[in-house]
């Protein structure tokens, strides 16, 4: 897999040139919009070095998947085998269940112009019926069902424009599927979320906030060195992380949830391309965090828009779980657990809502 990243300087230069002005404007003006003070975005010398060492992006084809082949539509959920489940069960010692998803409500922070509106028509919706006078309630929900609140990114959520901008035959998604193939007003034709297999795997939580001693700032990148510091602090070993495991990052940004939505939406700390490559090399099935993209926003390289999404989801089929809440796990110092989540099998959807749990 390393060949995808170790490209020459000319490819990196061309890749940067291909990033259009709209993406630049989105990150530097639309997304940050002045809401994040310039001081919080000043990169340290170490961070600057990290950017220089980040793997080069490439315009070369990244399909078919080297492990699961050209016809695969399940991505890294293929790691969840009976053997993986049995191995994961060994981690359940005290039988305690932790909800790591957030409550869905209209006031929660949402990306861009996404919406979450629920209505219960009538009061009650129906009844009374029968001699027992039964009444009932229904709800009507209008939202981007897989992309609001605690959200799970499917393989059809992220693509990369190859070739000329606007060419749907060169907008490539996981395993090389094109926008022309999969796109549609009524759902994705090929790599919808219904193809993702349920997750029952080992989870590893990196409390980077604790390593830093305070919540991280928007634009502050989590490095591999930070992960190793967290492992040491939490008495964990890097060798604990096996193929098919899930890894999670606590930045402290989640403390802004419903308390300062504007700041929460303005940017975020998170992983960058270095940690993305580390995750790919480890063969993880999924990444997740306590903020809305898992990756650092804005990226230290101002020409890049959500490059970690592209590398993990699009190129490698590694899923992403956003807006998680690790408060209870951290309070109990539970950093390794069974991660359990079954995406809602909505045919053609780009992602999923739901209630992920950690079991210790």
TrEMBL record:
<dbReference type="InterPro" id="IPR007325">
    <property type="entry name" value="KFase/CYL"/>
</dbReference>
<dbReference type="Pfam" id="PF04199">
    <property type="entry name" value="Cyclase"/>
</dbReference>
<dbReference type="InterPro" id="IPR037175">
    <property type="entry name" value="KFase_sf"/>
</dbReference>
<dbReference type="GO" id="GO:0004061">
    <property type="term" value="F:arylformamidase activity"/>
</dbReference>
<dbReference type="GO" id="GO:0019441">
    <property type="term" value="P:L-tryptophan catabolic process to kynurenine"/>
</dbReference>
<protein>
    <submittedName>
        <fullName>Cyclase</fullName>
    </submittedName>
</protein>
